[in-house]
Amino acid sequence: MKEFYYDAPYVKEIRTRVVSVKPLSKTFLLKFDKTIIYPGGGGQARDRATVNGEKILNAFKEKDGVWYEVSKKFVVGEEVLMRIDWRRRYSLMKAHTAEHLLFRSLNKVLPELEVIKVRLEEEGFKFYVRGRIDWKGLGNAQSIANKQILNGLEVKQKIVSLEDAKNIENIRIKYDSLKKKGVKEARIIFIGDFDVAACTGVHVKNTKELGYLHINNYHSLGHNEYEISFSIGEEALNYSSESNALLHEILEELKLDENNSLMAIKNLIQERNELKQALRRLNQRIIKNIKPIKPGIYYNEFINAEQKLMQRRINEIIRNETSLIIFVNIKHEKIFITIAKSKNNSLELKPLFKELLQIIEGKGGGNEQQLFGSGTYSKEKLEELRKTIKEKINLIT
Ligand SMILES: [Zn+2]
């Protein structure tokens, strides 16, 4: 069987012949005298394809050749028209070549890096690495890879024995695992003299075909492993332009210029953390020193106070004296209301709570001794809330 996808990767359709048919329970396995349908492997997805319009459901690469699963019966000797979804296949060929370029580029910047696996599918191109990475390294690697695209390097393949492959200088090959699998020969892909790797995927003839390469994102998977996603061609250009626009929108919003923006943002974050801590300490002090506005009646407002701290103080007060507590806390554009009383206080909390909740158009609940609720913040709501609480407190004798 001639596997045309390797030697003639640009052939989109051919006439071929069925040489073998194996019936399965509901479907059939077919073998052809020549094929252009890539069965999948090396991280590259199987081609989407048809034979006489009949969809290929699956493909299996066996020792005796590639078998394709279809739901219609074919006859041995029958001549058929085999056709692949070229758009998708070409995109995957480019992705595979891009992955070689990108990994070698990354390796130049971060020599410790190791590829774990590659996943090239329509939904996105991804590969997984082990070893520390950061945006600076990824940016440098992207730039090296794009230079190789501009250089228009030729991509060549060669089949050599596994032992010879191992001895090629700078080759990327999983020798031990191939040897374990009993592989005798390896397909070696050369990209100019920039990269050499053992690979079973289908590649383009020249790096120029990729157009442009963009690293979209990366994220940590834990255990020092990362997933890197990238795009190529038009999609990469769009992604790149959009990211650039977004970056400048963010800088504009923060009133920062590009040159020292990272430092400035780090300073902003630090300032924010310091402010947060200062506010926390201030709230702690306020909560600790709360005084009743009338004997046994506490009413306080907080900004960004921790509920835990307030609760601790509430417990302390209601344990020690006949009391009523109303705490209002403004946090994340919301108003939080806590009402609590001591056990020996006969006042009913629910009617008051309901009235206050209505003002802030909020939701909440609790028990006879303590109720908690929240609604979205507005200046008007807060003023109305204050007014009502003061009126209610005045009525209590
Ligand atoms: Zn490859």
Secondary structure layout plus pairing:
Elements: E1 2-3, H1 4-7, E2 13-23, E3 28-32, E4 34-35, E5 49-51, E6 54-55, E7 58-62, E8 65-70, E9 79-84, H2 86-109, E10 114-121, E11 124-130, H3 135-150, E12 155-161, H4 162-166, H5 175-180, E13 185-191, E14 195-198, E15 213-222, E16 225-232, H6 233-253, H7 261-288, E17 297-303, H8 307-320, E18 324-331, E19 334-341, H9 349-360, E20 363-366, E21 370-376, H10 379-395
Parallel strand pairs: 1-4, 17-18
Antiparallel strand pairs: 2-3, 2-9, 3-8, 5-6, 5-9, 7-8, 10-11, 11-16, 12-13, 13-14, 15-16, 18-19, 19-21, 20-21
Description:
The chain is an alpha+beta fold. The protein folds into four domains: 2-84, Beta Barrel (Elongation Factor Tu (Ef-tu), domain 3); 89-241, Threonyl-trna Synthetase, Chain A, domain 2 (Threonyl-tRNA Synthetase, Chain A, domain 2), CATH 3.30.980; 254-289; 291-395, Roll (Diaminopimelate Epimerase, Chain A, domain 1). The chain contains ten helices and 21 strands. It has helices at residues 4-7, 86-109, 135-150, 162-166, 175-180, 233-253, 261-288, 307-320, 349-360, 379-395; strands at residues 2-3, 13-23, 28-32, 34-35, 49-51, 54-55, 58-62, 65-70, 79-84, 114-121, 124-130, 155-161, 185-191, 195-198, 213-222, 225-232, 297-303, 324-331, 334-341, 363-366, 370-376. The longest helix is centred in the last third of the chain and has 28 residues, at 261-288. The mean pLDDT is 92. The structure holds zinc ion. Residues 42, 96, 100, 189, 199, 201, 203 line the site of zinc ion.
